[in-house]
Amino acid sequence: MNGAGVTRTIANRIDSDGNVDWRISLATLDGSARFSQFPGVDRILVPVDNLSVELRAQDGHLVAHPIVPAHFPGDLPVWTTDIVRPTNVLNVMTRRAACRATVSVATHSRRVTPAPTHLLICATGQWRFSSASLSTQTLLPMHGLWLDGRREEIDLQSDALDSRLISIAIESVER
User: Fold this and answer.
1) Domain boundaries, position 114
2) What Gene3D superfamilies does the record tag this protein with (predicted)?
3) Are residues 93 and 110 in the same domain?
4) Secondary structure letter of residue 142 according to DSSP
5) Same domain for 134 and 85?
6) Domain count of the chain?
């Protein structure tokens, strides 16, 4: 955001030339503002508070609903309108020439096989995770687990029907 909010980087990967291949951040949107443009970057925005965020672009608009991924290209001018109170959003940005991200939301217990890079972020409720090599741990809201190069299946257990876990799988693209 161009000075109209606060962005905190959660995780990123920078290549040997200093280019950001991917970045995951948490931003607080506070009022109407224009998003920074990032040519060659795909963006996924997930509102993590219980508010929708309306995104506008020259060719229309997109409503990002709470805990639902909204996709848009970073090349385009995009702005928010009608933000009535500070709202937190998770941003996933990937450089198209290097990688791609798949963002999904788990609503019930499941088993996942991690992508080469995989982040799990608890949005609501509590989630317990374990695997053959990881002892059982609990994720609380806005806490996460970063898995890099792990291939064993991870068991995820939610504690309530309204629990939500954001899964971010990042894979390299063929060059």
Assistant:
1) 100-172
2) Jelly Rolls
3) no
4) T
5) no
6) 2
What is the torsion angle, in degrees rounded to the nearest 10, for the CA atoms of residue 162, residue 136, residue 68 and residue 87?
90
Judge if 80 and 157 occupy the same domain. no
Q: Do 27 and 72 lie in a common domain?
A: yes
Say whether pTM exceeds 0.70. Answer: yes
Provide the CA 55 distance to its chain's centre, in angstroms.
Answer: 16
The string of pLDDT tens digits covering residues 64-122 is 999 999 999 999 999 887 777 888 999 999 999 999 999 999 999 999 999 999 999 99
What are the CA-CA distances from residue 84 to residues 28, 32, 61, 150 (Å)?
12, 9, 18, 41
Q: Which is higher by pLDDT, 6 or 139?
A: 139
CB 146 within 8 A of CB 129: no
Domain co-membership, 30 together with 48? yes
Model confidence at 1, pLDDT cuts 50, 70, 90, reads very low
| Residue 127: pLDDT over 60 | yes
Tokens, residue 154? 């991870």
- Tell me, yes or no, whether 91 and 134 share the same domain: no
Which DSSP category does 37 fall into? P
